[in-house]
Amino acid sequence: MSCNSTCGPLVVTLLTGAPGATGATGPQGPQGPPGSLTSVTGDLSLATGESGTVATVTGIRGNPVSGTLPTANQIYQFNGTSWVAVDFTAGTY
Questions:
Q1: d(CA 44, CA 53)
Q2: Fewest beta carbons less than 10 Å away: which of 5, 65, 79, 84?
Q3: What mean pLDDT comes out for the span 18-33?
Q4: How far apart are CA 57 and CA 65, in angstroms?
Q5: Is 53 helix (H, G, I), strand (E, B) or coil?
């Protein structure tokens, strides 16, 4: 079709239908590096180890936690002054 100066304005009508289904998502990208933990307050201490900064709980609500780690079937129990590892006996706590 040809048009000279006597043609009217060009009108374009777009026909739209219902949107199509969403396509599949791509693969998940790699995990980013861990954030840096540089300072804490309260019952926590920081140390730098082979795998980065390690946080250690040194107390619970201001009461010290024993340096002795609990073994199998033990829990931390408050003895009035600190949290210590004790044998767990069901029904006694």
A1: 12
A2: 5
A3: 85
A4: 7
A5: strand
